[in-house]
Write a structure and sequence with these properties.
GO terms for molecular function: glycosyltransferase activity. By secondary structure, the chain is of the alpha/beta class. The protein folds into two domains: 185 residues, no CATH class; 160 residues, Glycogen Phosphorylase B (Rossmann fold, 3-Layer(aba) Sandwich). It is 34% helix and 11% strand. The chain contains 16 helices and 15 strands. The strands form four sheets. Strands 4-3-5-6-7-8 form a six-stranded parallel beta sheet. The protein has a five-stranded parallel beta sheet with strand order 10-9-11-12-13, with helices on both faces. Strands 1-2 form a two-stranded antiparallel sheet. A hairpin with a 2-residue loop joins strand 1 and strand 2. The radius of gyration is 31 Å and the shape is elongated. The N and C termini lie far apart (107 Å).
Length: 457
């Protein structure tokens, strides 16, 4: 067993820890912390830039400011960001499309059709042609857009009702992808009060397709409504561009204290009960309700600026139903900053998942049009009216047909609603598939070998 030799331990001399050393250590720790954070931030910025411009835009598109906060499309049923591909049929691609856009003689122009309450059919088409969500490949498309200006064409004498019906059927018989899905992934616009009834055979051919329309339930006038809550989308009416543009609009809103009337109704009676009641009410209370006999043609026609000037001279804009339940006046009121009062019981409104209409408008029973309505409106204080108008200013951008690159527009809203309609899988009664995934028709012919024109249901 070895012996343990005791050795003297040498202890190095220790420098006393001074206050200077303590400060130096703190500075070293702080410097290390900030350098670490800087490197981390640069890494995050690099990752963010790698997302690409489109993805960054998409994150911003669905959020807009509301009363100091923000509201957005709910994730449930919509997804967390816009992600869809839309194929837009070319006017020369299918025989008959040009007739639905420019009439039998091709003399009607898109510029003529973009004006007025039916201009949405042109504006949406143009915006989709420039959209980042447009695809030129049918096989990768989630949805297919069918351009047609049929309402305008009909109003301008380009096609009659029978010709519109025949031309739509002719067009649909040439669409392979329409046949493949039974029309479930095809989008059509019917921008007037008639809705899809403009195409008389809609119930046979478009009963599964997505219809964009400002018109909702019409069962109060027809046996069948062309609007289906589950597949169709309500879109805003086409407000005059002179009022929706940023900057110098046709008419500037007046302060409430300078408005002459409590309420106004600007429109033709057209023999409709609610409108006739308003005309009579205006005669009884001319100091409260303005309802002049408007002329929309001839030498006494009311000009655009004059029309909006009248609207802006009242605190409340009354929006009764006309031939159908929707009215453009509802949307116009937001741009003259006049509180809309809906007098149309069956009305459907756009983007109801994100807009709380109880906070920006009034809906009053059409069966109670009379002095009781005026008494109620008279009881609302200017402070409460200002609150309704302020909230309306924050969401009216959703009624403006601007590109989806804008943080808030009707097009952004429509794209989000379209995304909700996209399915992973489409089928029709005439579509079948085999063990290897190939899609065939009833004659077992593979999809890309289908011949057209094809029979429709």
């Amino acid at each position: 067993m070895g012996t343990i030799t005791n050795k003297t331990r040498i202890i190095p001399s220790q420098t006393p820890c001074t206050r200077t050393h303590q400060f130096g250590a703190l500075i070293l720790i702080a410097t290390t912390f900030f350098i670490t954070r800087l490197i981390s931030n640069q890494s995050c910025n690099t990752n963010s830039s790698n997302l690409g411009v489109n993805q960054l835009q998409l994150r911003q598109n669905h959020v807009f400011v509301n009363n100091g906060g923000s509201i957005s499309w709910p994730d449930r049923g919509y997804g967390s960001q816009l992600s869809l591909k839309i194929y837009v049929y070319d006017e020369g691609e299918i025989d008959g499309l040009k007739e639905l856009m420019y009439g039998r003689d091709g003399k009607i122009t898109a510029e003529a059709c973009v004006k007025g309450q039916w201009g949405t059919q042109v504006k949406i088409h143009r915006l989709l042609l420039k959209s980042m969500f447009r695809t030129l490949k049918k096989d990768e498309a989630d949805l297919f857009f069918v351009p047609a200006y049929a309402k305008c064409v009909r109003m301008m004498g380009g096609l009659n009702d029978k010709e519109i019906n025949q031309t739509y059927v002719k067009v649909l018989r040439q669409m392979l992808y329409f046949r493949k899905s039974g029309g479930r992934d095809h989008i059509f616009i019917f921008p007037s009060g008639a809705g899809a009834h403009l195409f008389r055979s809609w119930a046979t051919y478009l009963n599964r397709s997505i219809i964009l329309t400002p018109e909702g339930d019409r069962t109060d006038k027809r046996d069948t409504s062309a609007f289906n809550t589950w597949k169709d989308i309500i879109i805003p009416g086409n407000v005059d561009d002179g009022m929706t543009k940023i900057g110098d609009t046709l008419v500037k809103p007046l302060p409430l204290s300078r408005r002459k009337y409590l309420a106004s109704f600007l429109g033709r009676a057209q023999g409709k009960a609610g409108r006739l009641q308003l005309v009579e009410l205006a005669k009884q209370f001319p100091d409260k309700l303005e309802s002049p006999e408007l002329k929309f043609s001839g030498p006494d026609k009311l000009g655009r600026a004059d029309y909006f000037q009248h609207l802006s001279n009242a605190k409340f804009c009354l929006a009764p139903r006309g031939e159908s339940s929707w009215t453009l006046r509802f949307y116009e009121s937001y741009f003259v900053e006049c509180v809309p009062v809906i007098l149309s019981d069956q009305v459907e409104l756009p983007f109801q998942n994100v807009i709380d209409y109880t906070r920006i408008s009034i809906k009053w029973p059409s069966t109670r049009i009379g002095h009781q309505l005026l008494d109620y409106l008279q009881s609302i204080s200017d402070k409460e009216i200002e609150g309704l108008l302020a909230r309306g200013r924050q969401v009216r951008c959703l009624f403006v047909y601007a590109p989806e690159t804008e943080p808030c527009s009707a097009m952004v809203g429509i794209l989000w609603e379209l995304q909700r309609k996209v399915s992973q899988f489409y089928q029709s009664a005439e579509t079948f598939w085999l063990h290897n995934g190939s899609v065939v028709n009833r004659n077992l012919e593979q999809f890309h070998n289908w011949k057209f024109p094809m029979p429709l249901p």
